[in-house]
# Entry
Amino acid sequence: MRQHVSIFAICTLLLCLSGCQTNVKQDARASQNTDNKVAVISLTSDPLTHPQSVNMGLTFAGFCLDEGYDVAIFFNVKGVTLPTTSFDADYKYQEHAPLIEQLQTLKSRGAELHVCPVCMKDLKITADDIMEDAFVTDKPRLFEKLGGDTMVFTY
# Structure
């Protein structure tokens, strides 16, 4: 019986040790900074018809910044209408700060404001329509935020 326990223990140890080497490859971002916590907030909701969802996404982005996360807000689907120069700067949800003011505050705190070019094209929004604090993103710039340790929330 003792021999079976020893063999089992040795096999278990070998499996554990061999498993440690199976996942050696890491993405470039993870190997550069293991302390980097990343949150991507995907805003897909139309801010005029679903302001509560958009406000909650922006509020959550602020919470993530409070906790030391790098934050990227990805405006896509109908969310691309928010970070535009034509969006009403005074528009707000209930007693919260206006949505544009919230975006500017998040940007000043370090959040990146990515705007989907495909969604912009679908809604006939041009790069000239995007507010100064945001930028038209591309696949490499957005995907560098994504990794095995990235939190993604959609509103």
About this structure: Confidence is low (pLDDT under 50) at residues 4-34. Strands lie at 38-43, 70-75, 112-115, 135-136, 150-154.
